[in-house]
Amino acid sequence: MKLTEQWKDKWVTQPGLMLITVVIWSIFIGLCIKAGALLFTSIYSFFKPIVSQDLYEGLNLYGLRNEEIWFYVGLVSLLVAIACLKAYLYYLMIRIFLTINLNHPFSKEVSVLISEIASIAIQTGLLIILTTGSLKWLIKRGFDIPSMGAYTGGAFEYLLLGALIYAIAQVFKRGVEIQSENELTV
Fold this sequence. Notes:
The protein is mainly α. The protein has one domain (2-185). It has seven helices and no strands. The protein is elongated. It comes from Cecembia rubra.
């Protein structure tokens, strides 16, 4: 009963935040589908190798799978990890938008979530750099790897995003301290 009233209150007092939350939910669901499909088809490709010709949206790693299975496993693991980190990043955003209260925006929980988003964004950027390096190494060794810009692009953007959000997390942390001091003095 209390949760329903809380949701009604959020929709009435903070419609903009709830609209953003709905958009973020749709992106999160899409990223979960991408990560799940990539994981499922990758596992299925061990039993039926022909599946590796179209792992997800035309990603063809059939040549690598046939030539060297362990490099295939490593590359696919990196791609799945990147997809999962991106989905988790949006999950954390959903949690922030469901937690934040515009009347008292500085809360310890929101501050921790913002710090975690910064950490995940930086990890995603570093993992993309690692994957790009691995791809270049495999191509240099003569393996037939298709262009994977859609899967390995945006490393710099994620690193920059992580640094920016880390700065915002520090501001939020200080805001929590000031807000708690003000509540104690009143």
